[in-house]
Amino acid sequence: MTKSQKEIILTMRWALCSYTQIAEKTGLSVGAIKSYCYRNGLNTASLKNSSGFCKNCGKPILNPSKTRPRKFCSDA
User: Fold this and answer.
1) What is the Rg, in whole angstroms, of the alpha carbon atoms belonging to the chain?
2) pLDDT over 70 percentage in the chain
3) Are the CB atoms for 1 and 34 separated by under 8 Å?
4) How far is the C-alpha of 19 from the C-alpha of 30, rounded, in Å?
5) Above 80 in pLDDT, residue 29?
6) What is the 3-state secondary structure (H, E, C) of the chain?
7) Higher model confidence: residue 28 or residue 68?
8) In 3D, which of 17, 48, 31, 56 has the Cα closest to residue 72?
9) pTM
10) Where exactly are the structural domains of the chain?
11) Which are the contacts of 38, defined by CB distance < 8 A and separation ≥ 6?
12) How confident is the model at residue 48 (pLDDT cuts 50, 70, 90)?
């Protein structure tokens, strides 16, 4: 696996793309993508539990700097 393939995997997983979509884009097998993501904390459960995603719907949250991290994407 090349460095450019690893970068593609990282960016696509942060965008919550499926393993199949990533495999088609990189030319690697789905199994290779799954094992790489699992070993590097890029599996779906890890990504959704990180502070950058809404705990309710799983959408990415952009936090303004110098503020407390948001847990949900709603402004209410």
Assistant:
1) 14
2) 79
3) no
4) 6
5) yes
6) CCHHHHHHHHHHHHCCCCHHHHHHHHCCCHHHHHHHHHHCCCCHHHHHHCCCECCCCCCECCCCCCCCCCCCCCCC
7) 28
8) 56
9) 0.62
10) 3-42
11) none
12) low
